[in-house]
From TrEMBL:
<feature type="transmembrane region" description="Helical">
    <location>
        <begin position="25"/>
        <end position="45"/>
    </location>
</feature>
<dbReference type="InterPro" id="IPR000326">
    <property type="entry name" value="PAP2/HPO"/>
</dbReference>
<keyword id="KW-0812">Transmembrane</keyword>
<keyword id="KW-0472">Membrane</keyword>
<dbReference type="InterPro" id="IPR036938">
    <property type="entry name" value="PAP2/HPO_sf"/>
</dbReference>
<feature type="transmembrane region" description="Helical">
    <location>
        <begin position="166"/>
        <end position="189"/>
    </location>
</feature>
<keyword id="KW-1133">Transmembrane helix</keyword>
<dbReference type="Pfam" id="PF01569">
    <property type="entry name" value="PAP2"/>
</dbReference>
<feature type="domain" description="Phosphatidic acid phosphatase type 2/haloperoxidase">
    <location>
        <begin position="113"/>
        <end position="224"/>
    </location>
</feature>
<protein>
    <submittedName>
        <fullName>Acid phosphatase</fullName>
    </submittedName>
</protein>
<feature type="transmembrane region" description="Helical">
    <location>
        <begin position="209"/>
        <end position="228"/>
    </location>
</feature>
<feature type="transmembrane region" description="Helical">
    <location>
        <begin position="113"/>
        <end position="133"/>
    </location>
</feature>
<feature type="transmembrane region" description="Helical">
    <location>
        <begin position="77"/>
        <end position="93"/>
    </location>
</feature>
Length: 248
């Protein structure tokens, strides 16, 4: 995916404008801090919180959160919608349609493609961890008294860590927050509600949803400069033209 040359200063400025959550230089610190937080949650919060929720959440509240949690289902549907936005934006650009705002089609094309990549990479990481970590779901504790890890690839009852629904919700939410910063608080609030719903429905522990949100954050931070940096022209081309050298 060759790109037109740009100065280091302009590239750095573009990166700062795109990635606002965690600067790349602090990734190691963020990952270490995340690991510490996850360990503390697993040791002191996960089980007590799950027991408290099991005792206090009513059927009506559980049902309401179940409906909210459905927003995190089937990440492939979000990816397909994002891919459609990408294709329509390229088509509109080539047809010369008037833009609803300056640079709209460029932003939509880049953002749509970024969301597809975030959901794909984040989904792969989450899926692999689910089967390798093989953490027992809360239902295993409340039905069989078992809390901990099982054998790798032990089946659906041992796929608690991390939460796929939360990964989808934060993958979509964080991508939208980066592409459209003015909308960041509403979309991140919805993402957080989806994560809370996984706790309220006793489908996951607190560290499961926290890990998924962290994975989504890291993936968005890592991929955003490659898709949103104006110096990179490949996202504005059709897929079979991505590796075509830009004219000098």
């Amino acid at each position: 995916m060759s790109e037109s040359p740009s100065s280091p200063t302009s590239s750095a400025a573009a990166r700062r404008g795109i990635v606002r959550f965690v600067p790349p230089a602090r990734w190691v610190a963020v990952l270490l801090a995340g690991a510490v937080v996850l360990a503390l949650l697993a040791a002191y919060v996960d089980l007590p919180l799950a027991i408290y929720i099991h005792k206090t959440i009513s059927a009506d509240v559980d049902g309401a959160f179940n409906r909210i949690g459905q927003l995190g289902e089937r990440g492939e549907n979000y990816a397909l919608c994002a891919l459609l936005v990408y294709g329509l934006s390229l088509y509109a650009t080539r047809r010369g349609w008037s833009e609803p705002w300056a640079g709209a089609y460029d932003r939509l094309a880049r953002g749509g493609l970024l969301m597809v990549a975030v959901l794909a990479l984040g989904g792969i990481v989450t899926g692999v961890l689910k089967h390798l970590v093989a953490r027992a779901r809360p239902s295993m504790f409340f039905e069989h008294g078992y809390y901990g890890l099982g054998a790798m690839f032990g089946g659906k009852h041992y796929t608690s860590f991390p939460s796929s629904h939360t990964l989808t919700a934060f993958g979509v939410g964080l991508t939208l927050a980066v592409v459209f910063p003015r909308c960041r608080w509403p979309v991140l609030a919805v993402s957080t509600l989806v994560a809370v719903s996984r706790l309220a429905n006793l489908d996951h522990y607190a560290s499961d949803v926290t890990a998924a949100a962290l994975i989504a954050l890291v993936v968005v931070v890592f991929l955003s400069p490659y898709f949103l940096d104006p110096a990179r022209q490949w996202p504005k081309r059709l897929p079979w033209q991505w590796f075509k050298r830009a004219p000098r």
